[in-house]
Amino acid sequence: MQRHFLLGKIHRCVVTRADLDYIGSITIDPVLIRAAGFLENEKIDIYDVTNGARISTYVIPGREGSGEVGINGAAAHHVRAGDLVILAAYGWMTEEEAAARKPKVVFVDEKNRITSLADRERTPERELAAQA
Questions:
Q1: What is the mean pLDDT of each successive set of 10 residues along the chain, which is 132 residues long?
Q2: Is 58 marked active-site?
Q3: What kind of architecture, by CATH, is found in domain 3-131?
Q4: Catalytic member of 22, 47, 56, 58
Q5: Is 0.70 topped by the overall pTM?
Q6: Is 25 a catalytic residue?
């Protein structure tokens, strides 16, 4: 049986622009795309931390090194420039495949520059355990 697992995510990045008139998708700096393991045209979910909106769309590469996270098309009604968002991709795999694979988790600063990479979620408990 196949189940749905997290492949990669960019945690709490800042939306740099929202363009209603652009054909739908999300434009992301290729540095961030590679770090999260996303592929061009791959379906991803957008979770808006600022307002709670949840949207699915697909990835378009932006300008290299720009820090761009641009919301395009109808999604711009729900996600605005300056919002904090989580971007996540999922994939179907068996439990055995999932056990052998770790997700790519990307943490960024307020300018969407990578601050750290991980292979799992960080929680306060895990942070405290890592510091001990």
A1: 97 97 93 98 98 97 98 96 98 96 97 95 60 60
A2: yes
A3: Beta Barrel (2.40)
A4: 58
A5: yes
A6: yes
